Amino acid sequence: MAEQKVTGHHILLRHRDIPEIGEFEVYTAQGGFETFKKVVTTMEPEAIKQLVLDSGLRGRGGAGFPTGRKWMFVDDNNWPHYLVVNADESEPGTFKDREIMSKNPWQFLEGIMCSAFAIGANDIYIYLRGEFWQIAHELDRQIEKLHAESLLGEKLFGTDYALNIYTHLGAGAYICGEETALLNSIEGIMGQPRLRPPFPPAVGLYGKPTVVNNVETLANVALILEKGAAWYRSFGTAESAGTKVFSLSGRVKKPGNYELPLGTTYRQLIYEYGGGIMGDGKIKGIMSAGASSAVIVATDEVLDTPMAYESVPSLGADLGSASVIILDETVDMRWLINKTIDFFKHESCGKCTPCREGTFWMQKLTTRIASGDAGEADVELLHNVAKNMQGKCLCALGEFSTMAVASSIERFSEDFKV
Amino acid sequence: MAEQVKENTVTLTIDGVEVAVPQGTLVVDAAKIAGQDIPVFCYHPKMEPVGMCRMCLVDIGYPVKDRNTGEAVLNEDGTPKIQFGRTLVTGCTQVVSEGMVVVGYSEKVQQARKDVLEFFLTSHPLDCPICDKGGECPLQNLTLAYGPGESRFNYDEKKKNLKHVPLGDLIFLDRERCIHCARCTRFQEEIVDDPVIGFYNRGRSLEITTWSEPGFDSYWSGNTTDICPVGALTTADFRFGARPWEMLEVASICRECPVGCNLTLNTRREAKSGGKMVVKRVMPRQNEQVNELWICDKGRFGYHYASADDRLTTPLIRKEGEFIPASWDEALSLAAEKMQAAGSRLVSVAGGQLSNEDYFHIGQLTEHLGGKAVLYSNMMGGDLTTKVGMGPGSNLADLGAGDAILVVASDLEEEAPLYWLRVKQAAERGATLIVANPRATKTDRYAAHIIRYEYGQEAAAILALSLDRIGDSDLADESFKQAAKAFAEAENAVVFFGSEGTGMAQSDALSKACANLLIATGHTGRPNNGLVGVWDKGNVQGGWDMGLQPSATLFDDLKAAKAAYVVGADLAGDNPAYKQALAQAEFVVVQELHHTATMELADVVLPAQSFMEREGTLTSGERRVQRYYPAVPPAGESKADFAITAEIAAMAGKELESVSAGLVFLGIVGKFKDYADLDYQALAEVSEQWPIIGREDLYYGGTGYANHQGLGVLLGTAAGRGEPVLIDGFDLPDTGVDGLLAVPVTRLYDQGNNLRYAAVMFPRIASSYVSLNPADAAGLGESVVVELNGFQVEVALKLDENVPQGIVVVPRSFGLPISAPTPVVVKN
After folding, report:
1. How many CB atoms lie within 10 A of CB A27?
2. Is the peptide bond preceding residue A80 cis, with omega within 30 degrees of 0?
3. Residue A264 belongs to some domain of the structure
4. With contact defined as beta carbons under 8 Å apart, do B786 and B826 qualify?
5. What integer is the mean pLDDT of B234-254?
6. Is residue B94 domain-shared with residue B156, that is, in the same domain?
7. Which of A187, B196, B600, B795 could tie B768 with a disulfide, CB 3.0–4.6 Å?
8. Contact B123 A359 (CB under 8 A)
9. Cβ separation of A391 and B88 shorter than 8 Å?
10. Residues of chain B contacting residue A351, judged by C-beta atoms under 8 Å apart
11. pTM
């Protein structure tokens, strides 16, 4: 993907401002790991959690849950605690964590180390999708380096605090991005979601209190602790503080990652940064959160809507992981939903009935519809099957699988006329 | 569950029915109690909820409370205001709360059930007419209730799958029928800790597979076919055998081990059996105090001996070396004449699986004739369990935190699978489990303390566990001391003693040491305290209770016998030494079901009825007396054992009841104090059990049967009545041998007569073998010759690091002559 200098003031994609920041010496020359030292030697975990809560940082994996609040849910009457980093970045259209981990690794690592201290964890597991094996090998080397620099291990900075980081590669299952399936996968059992509640901060990895956070979320933490909550809140909107890496893809001229303040409009992202639609065609729709997204009809009002946790739902969609896929007039929505359902049918874990059977059924229907072999009754049936799945699945995967289907049929009915 | 105290209850409303249930109850269970069933597939009341199948979706509302005052907000009409959730929730994962309102009969919920059911049916085949589950299938029932009349799924797009996948020798999987509820895999993992089956692949390709070699290697596999809510899992024994609605149900009791699992025999009259009434399958019958909803595979599949084709159907008399069919009168009078003439040289040997009524009569007749009645068992201590046994009010399910269980000299899952399960569950509830055994067993997984003594040292080890003697023991490490302390300080304590490596002498010392420990620590005479014999046969306790005892001199007794009366015991088949002894007896009367090695030595053969053909009572290791009932007509002219004995007695001048077992039982009641308050009616009483199973819905407990025919009665003990209990002194057996020591152990699947007729189990039964520590096996091949008790037998050699050095583990009932620890030579 193209690496453009966008603001010059990146928080997450700082390698775009400081090209060699992936080198340990360059990162430390920028004050790297000073925050971690300050945290371990001078700060109380409670104060860190409060600071992160005050910063307004919300989970970047898609749910947008306030990070500080999640940390406060960790059960302090049950030990040990674990920090698990969700690096299973598998949502079609999402490619932000990969860039952060491979280009700005030390900031990511410092972020997770500070976070571990905040929640009282001595062990961090970074769970990466299997295809990220190169990144995992790099991280392993970097973790070794941190041990060599006495930034990991026993008695850090002369305190009693001990910290270790382990990488863990998945085996290529999208469902393992779901936090409880991810925990199962680390434990060596089948990657299927667990019942929630109990949520991981109460009962998580090996039955112990666990925080599961996204890579991007935690990559913010060291800078927030260094510069303060007010600084972070100076970016973004009141309810969506900070910047966000938007993964722009689809029918745009300049796809790629763009780190922008939350609240930036779709129009700015697509036309100002993304260079507009390929062949200067007409935009048709937007998938705001990858394949899991409802498809939005790209009207002028939509294009002027700020991309923030609080504003996207008014469009009948979610900000999610902010993987923005652009559809233009050349895209046939029948083809599109067939592609998304192929994906979800392939990735359904099979644990709950509506998802296992529903994605299989929808895949059969969309294949026929996309090939033009189907009648209006099939479209109606497809819509009905998608609706019947909603509200009945065990985890979000099944619910998400219906989003593109139901919304496309409802909002782009022209494409489905036989 | 029904016994919880009032203040811990929660009141809620389910479809208009108000119900009070214990705190922590799940919504689906509360609905079951209220009689407002919520359909389930994956949920099973014995397992943790998983919320996978989504069939139990309900609407749940909670009373609205004022945030400031905490008071309930009321509607205008004065009723509490209820706030319902945004989405439906699974009733199997939701715990009840005060004032909760559960709605299952709204249009929204009914539609959701239809939707979920339609999803199931898109992939389920329409083969109910040839499906074994048809007629007792939750999916079939729920399809009638919620299923669409027409499929909206394109039939051509249906996923085709393999329909006859053997998961092992006993269980078949139909991959098309499987609805992925995971009941089977969770049962194997959570309940019996044999996680040998599991899911493979994902999504619509998810399938059940086995991880073990041989496949589905578990003694519990048949239970998965009961709880499978569709016809995906079937048994090799019953599949395609009969339709559920054709069969009658008859209550019975298993006699394969001392647990006394409650059974239901399913029978039908069928053309392919020549118009005879036959047993088509054996199913568990619920008894939460004994076997809950489960039985082991030996109990489920091992029943065929009772209906084998080679059953003895007429009396036989040996004339000039040949067996000649005879009339009952002729055979009985010959037997009576010889037995009467034998007087004190009459030896009656009663097998370990007879009924109490049979034992009672054998004892009465033998006493009348002045002979010696012997219980055919190698274990001692059946008198001690009458003194310090478990007693009325006991239930292993009540043991938990603060209690202790000692399992000594027993590979408990091999000797009595359900005891193993109940002990495991008690340990999971927090009971301190102490396992004392010379080698590792599956029971160790749950042990808080493991004591390894040398074979022969079992009594010494238990003696040392008494706190006042612990200092003298060379076993007394820190863990041993902790075990002794935990046992002594336990609120309730139970000892299970088995027969791992013991003969009669060792068993005598061990049982006394165990009784002594219980008395010394004050664990007698109260419910949930006491001694349980893990007997080597199903009704050994009943034999002891009827006054019979094993004989240490049986070999010599038989050799010197003028008449031997052998009932339900294959002495010659079990041990060649007995064969030699019996051959020297002057006259041999054998009462049997079918052809055995012992019968070959008989002068008179009397055909007996199998347990399926008659009624009677059995007494379990916990001393629960339970009734079994006749299911099929008798084979040929065969008679019940007690009736045959009574007819011999009549000819020998002693009146004994011969008409019905129930009348014989009155004699038992009159003679034995422990049985004094009983009668057949009391044994047939039932009370409400949890979980509620057997109602029309079927989806709750599976296809196991509800119990309408009796939960049985636990007998009182001497200690419970406050009588003084003294344990006789005993000598510790001498165990010193030079060279290898052979020790007998029990395997669940043995080569005994019962399993000889269970063809489906043959692949699961090992060939004859002995086990050695690899360190003792230098130079030995895969096949060895074992010199034991003067006999030479060629067997396979298994190497097992769990076997202590210097020891040869010899399984019982595998054709090797062993009844006690014995010096042995193993060579190529």
Report:
1. 22
2. yes
3. yes
4. yes
5. 96
6. no
7. B795
8. no
9. yes
10. 52, 180
11. 0.95
Structure-token pair, residue B326: 């005879």
Give Cβ neighbours of residue A408 (< 8 Å, ≥ 6 apart): A295, A333, A336, A337, A415, A416
Q: Are residues B177 and B49 in the same domain?
A: no
Give dist(CA B743, CA B78) in Å, integer: 77
Could you tell me which of B319, B268, B269 has the C-alpha nearest to residue B604? B319
Domain coverage including residue A156: 14-233
Pull the structure tokens for residue A99: 């860039």
Nearby residues of A302 by Cβ (< 8 Å), 6 or more positions away: A266, A286, A296, A315
Q: Where are the alpha helices (DSSP H) in B343-443?
A: 356-369, 384-388, 412-415, 417-428
In this prediction, residue B771 carries a pLDDT of: 97
Q: What is chain B's Cα-based Rg? A: 29
From B51, B119, B205, residue closest to A357, measured CB to CB: B119
Q: What is the pLDDT of residue B696?
A: 75
Tell me if the bond preceding A354 is cis, omega within 30° of 0: no
Nearest CA in chain B to A191: B202
CA distance linking residue A247 with residue A98, whole number of Å: 11
- 3-state DSSP percent of chain B in helix, strand and coil, to 5: 30, 20, 45
Given pLDDT bands bounded at 50, 70 and 90, which one contains residue B697? Answer: confident
Burial of residue A352 (number of CB atoms within 10 Å: 0-12, 13-18, 19+): buried
> B116 falls in which pLDDT band (50, 70, 90)?
very high
CB-based contact B122 A360, cutoff 8 Å? yes
> Do B337 and B355 share a domain, yes or no?
yes
The residues, any chain, with a CB within 8 Å of residue A129's CB and separated by 6 or more, are A87, A88, A89, A90, A169, A170, A172, A176, A177
Closest CB to A349 among B50, B120, B203:
B203
Distance CA B25, CA B32 (A): 11
Q: Which two tokens stand for residue B431?
A: 């009971």
3-state secondary structure of B245: helix
Q: Does some domain include residue B681?
A: no
Do A123 and A257 belong to one domain?
A: no
Boundaries of domain holding B406: 384-534
The number of domains in chain B is 5
User: Does residue A126 sit in the same domain as residue A257?
Assistant: no
Question: Is B278 a domain residue?
Answer: no
CB pairs under 8 A between A and B: 88
How far is Cα B205 from Cα B175, in angstroms, rounded to an integer?
A: 10
Contact B119 A353 (CB under 8 A): yes
Q: Closest Cα of chain A to B582: distance in Å?
A: 58
What are the residue ranges of helices labelled H in B625-733?
Answer: 641-651, 661-671, 680-683
| Final residue in a domain of this structure, among A208, A233, A258 | A233
B55 and B155 inside one domain: no
Tell whether the model's pLDDT for residue B698 goes beyond 90.
Answer: no
Pairwise CB contact (< 8 Å): B53 & A351: no
Domain-terminating residue out of A233, A253, A285: A233
- Helix extents (H) in B260-327: 297-301
**pLDDT at residue B574, rounded to an integer:** 87
Q: Does B52 touch chain A (CB under 8 A)?
A: yes
Looking at CA atoms only, how far is residue B72 from chain A in angstroms? Answer: 26
Pairing of strands A121-128, A256-261: unpaired
Q: How many folded domains does chain A comprise?
A: 3
The answer on B634 and B528 residing in a single domain is no
| Portion 185-214 of B in contact with A at CB < 8 A | 198-199, 201-206
In a domain, A367, yes or no: yes
A200 and A250 assigned to the same domain: no
B125 contacts B176 by C-beta, under 8 angstroms? yes
Q: Supply B30's token pair.
A: 């509360």
CB-count exposure of residue B159 (10 Å: 0-12, 13-18, 19+): middle
Amino acid identity for residue B687 in this structure: S
Could you tell me if residue A418 is inside a domain?
no
